[in-house]
Amino acid sequence: MDKQFSYKQASSTASNGIKTGRNLLPKNAIHSVKRRCSRFGIVTLSIALLGSVTVILFSKPNGSTNNYSTSNNHQQIDDNSQTYIIIHPTRQPLKQNTPPTEKNDLDFYNRGQEKFIAREYSQAIENYTEALKTADNPVRLANIYNSRGISRIKLGDKQDALRDFTQAITLAPKQTIYHRNRAAVYADLKDWSAAINNYNVAIQSNSQETELYRLRAQVHFHKGDSISALKDIRTAIHIALDKRI
After folding, report:
1. pLDDT tens column, 40-95
2. How far is residue 220's CA from residue 173's CA, in Å, rounded to a whole number?
3. Can you tell me the distance from the alpha carbon of 69 to that of 189, in angstroms, rounded to the nearest whole number?
4. Radius of gyration over alpha carbons of the chain, in Å?
5. 131 CB contacts (<8 Å, ≥6 apart)?
6. CA triplet 128, 147, 84: central angle to 5 degrees?
7. CA dist., res. 21 & res. 12, Å (int)
8. What is the secondary structure of 92-106 as a DSSP string?
């Protein structure tokens, strides 16, 4: 009987404690938990709300995976979870005194593009490499390195792709796209700090490009910095809304 009574008594006490919240945690601990839950709830709700707006503003329309900005000869290339940008140069006339049978860098480049579109990435790289031997303009050289880097990405050769994007940046440091492409490689390699550094440089050059903030927000999120991710999403939304007004 004593044991039965003791059991019931303990059960009743525990039940009352659960209902009232007393005798389970010190008051200070209860207040601390409430504050943390409140903050977590606010952050979670904010991310959820901003995430829905982001999907509306930044989701890709069907069939648009290869159209980044056709007005300025840019093309978006998707690879797994990352996207890369190719810049298509306009064709230039042959130099004076150039034999008609001799190929110049743009001939090799265009051939490389044909192979890239055909998904013959090794042959694309061969043609881009030949184009590098005959190109003499830093901007064009950077463009060829960038295209070759994306072909290397398609073959899974991320380290050589990094070297090509770095060469492109060295030749044309103000071109936002090259920094963005290198950031995408670092993100794919889960080198979050390096990816953020490259997105930082890209944003410094083009602070009104909403896509850069969205991409950097993803990296912040993967790094575990949800506050910085939230700030980038909010900035992207504000810029997008300002452009629509």
Report:
1. 554 454 555 555 444 434 444 333 333 333 335 666 666 655 677 766 555 444 45
2. 24
3. 26
4. 27
5. 105, 106, 107, 108, 109, 112, 144
6. 160
7. 14
8. -PPPTT--TTS--HH
211: amino acid identity, one letter: E
Write the Ramachandran bin of 99: left for phi over 0, alpha for psi from -120 to 50, otherwise beta. Answer: beta
Cα 48 to chain centroid, rounded: 20
Tell whether pTM > 0.90: no
CA angle, residues 53, 72, 245, in degrees to nearest 5: 35
Tokens of residue 240, six digits? 């997008």
Give strand pairing partners of 77: 84
Residue 49 and residue 231: Cα distance in Å, rounded? 13
More confident residue, 210 or 15: 210
Residue-wise pLDDT for 197-226, tens only, equals 999 999 999 999 999 999 999 999 999 999
C-alpha angle 123/128/132, rounded to 5°?
150
Q: Are 157 and 176 in contact (CB under 8 A)?
A: no
Q: What are the tokens at 9?
A: 């008594």
